[in-house]
Amino acid sequence: MQCGCSPKGNCSQGNKPQSSPNSTIALVSDPRPRLFAVVCGINAYESKDFSRLRGAVKDAEAVVDLLVTNYHVPRAQIILLTDKAASRSSIISTLDGLSTDPRIQPGDPILFYFAGHGSEIDPPKGWECGGPNGKIQVLVPQDYCSEADRKIPGIPDRTIGFLLDKIAHTKGDNITVIFDCCHAASGTRGDLVRSVEVDSSIHTSILDIHIWGEHTARRGLASHVLLAACRPSELAREKDERGAFTTTLLKLLREVPPHELRYCDILHKIGPLSSQNPQCEGLHQGRYLFNAKVVSPAPVTYVPRYDPAFNAIVVNAGIAHGVTDGAEFAFYVAQDPHPGGKPLGIYVVDKATPFYSIMKPIGGSSMSALPSGLAAFQTQAGQGNALRVYISEAADRPTSSPRRVDKISRACGRDLRNVQFVDSRDKAHLELAIKENQVVITVRDPKTTQQGRYQLPPRTITWDELGPFLSKAKLFYSELDRSSIDTDVVKDIGIEFHRLQEMPSSFHNVSEPDLRPFGSNRLLPDGMIHLAVEDRYSYGVKLTNRGPYDLYPSLFYFDGSDPTRIRTYYEPSSSGPYLLEPPLKRNGGTLTIGYGSAGIPPFSYPVSGKVNVGFLKLLVSTRPLNSSSGTGPCLCSSGAQYAGRALKETWGTATIPIIHEKPNLRLVRRTMTT
């Protein structure tokens, strides 16, 4: 008979091992998952103005059941707050207590789940929230009250963010947040929508300063991954007395073990939802669920389909995604992040447009008989900007003899696609000085050296490292050189690059400093940024959209001294097949990266030598590039006008050189030799 203390009935009261002075006791590690959770569900609100929900408490209890039954999390590691127990003070104090809980070790997974009403309010003065019409999102606690003699406000996203950052500071960033509520403030009084209107006036600029006044957030979306039931402008709905989002999410989590499910895959795999588009936010979306281990990058998947208008297979990925004519794709049955085995067919891109590509088969693949549920993985790069390589002897005797090219080809696995050997270092991205067992690589890219004004230190690698190095360098320079012929969309974006400084808080009685822009915009009229870099300096970017399009921006940094790495500063959230909320709204919308409301940590530029040259690259588009939403080809709309301009689906890029120099050191200049 099992005692019931654990799923297998093992506890200190039964099956206790016997020992003797001569026996050896095997030490077995504790099998209990080290996951800790705060789970909130509110049906009955104290305010008579709020509709009573039917499924929020059931949802919270179902989450607890999943953790205990499926994940075998000890019940003592889960705090369940329902209805009256989910007061404002209880929610805040419980979250705050996680940062000092001695049971939780750094790296242990932490879950915060909330099901109930949400809302949005006008931002208090001094709060950055993304433009003139931006809103602050709030969770509505059970005891919310706007009466003059007993004001209990909601819990703003700023407060939640600081609590999560405080937890991450002591316990690590393995934090998962799930919100099954909405923030549209629709005023709906039906019991199928988790949204209410709240009074903005009781949410003052110094609300919760005891939380964010003593801890300055720096991690933002680096502290956690958020799964939200819908976009900020939408409504989270109940169906059959349960939250629609929670129901379909828990079904997936019961079927797929967490060690096989990445955050970025969840919205692709959950069942369909009507009238709401779930969102996934956070810098660590590539992690497995509840696990801080980062997996190796998986290839991007696309959904192919037969389009009778073209009599061809079409994928919703094009030039804006980096797909070009001649690219090859393998089709598999399942959307496996790391596909294996023989593909159903190989297709090549016959015509790439900005947002979709028309394919043709290689071999005997059928043009129209495609089974459902296919996934397309790109296996070969298409035509693009070639990596230009100049080969020299160690003694500087130039040669590109077939023997040396063949040796390089063998090091690259015979894949020299988009590699061009040139006869002058002035034309090259990279110079390879070949020694017996080593290769010395020097950056010669004219943009990086600023036409020879700057010399970056060479690096030495082994022959075994050359293949992977050139493969990454091809991607580096191809992405750096890739641009759109449509420049209008970028012209409407104001770009500011600021040094950030800890400055006295603008909020009353707050001793901790804020991280805010210091000085003028560092982006000069010539389109370049010159920085006298010190390790203590940090930087941020502000984008202002003055154009007629809602935009999805991505911001990257290309380090000229290391052409194997592209650093991502910002990418929009993922939404799988659902519609994604645009981060950069039209007609004056703003987005701050590195500070402010976007939740992105600041960036810095340590310089090991005297000087370095890098590039800040902004890519914007009128549709999300990391989402599979939409099934039809992306064709420009006809007839739509704004201020005399035709509205269309488009994309654009802006590339800004950044010159980093150590303070008080003379610029290193050189005259290029030929």
Automatic annotation (TrEMBL):
Top-rank taxon: Eukaryota
Species the sequence originates in: Hebeloma cylindrosporum
SUPFAM superfamilies for the chain: Caspase-like (SSF52129)
Region annotation (Disordered) ranges: 1-25
InterPro entries: Caspase-like_dom_sf, Metacaspase, Pept_C14_caspase
Assigned GO CC terms: cytoplasm
Keyword tRNA-binding: no
Keywords, ordered alphabetically: Apoptosis, Hydrolase, Protease, Thiol protease
Gene Ontology MF term list: cysteine-type endopeptidase activity
Keyword set includes Transmembrane helix: no
A Pfam family that the UniProt record links to this protein: Peptidase_C14
Residue span, Peptidase C14 caspase domain: 36-266
Family to which the UniProt record says this protein belongs: Belongs to the peptidase C14B family.
Name by which UniProt lists this protein: Peptidase C14 caspase domain-containing protein
Polar residues composition bias: residue spans: 9-25
GO BP terms in the entry: apoptotic process; proteolysis
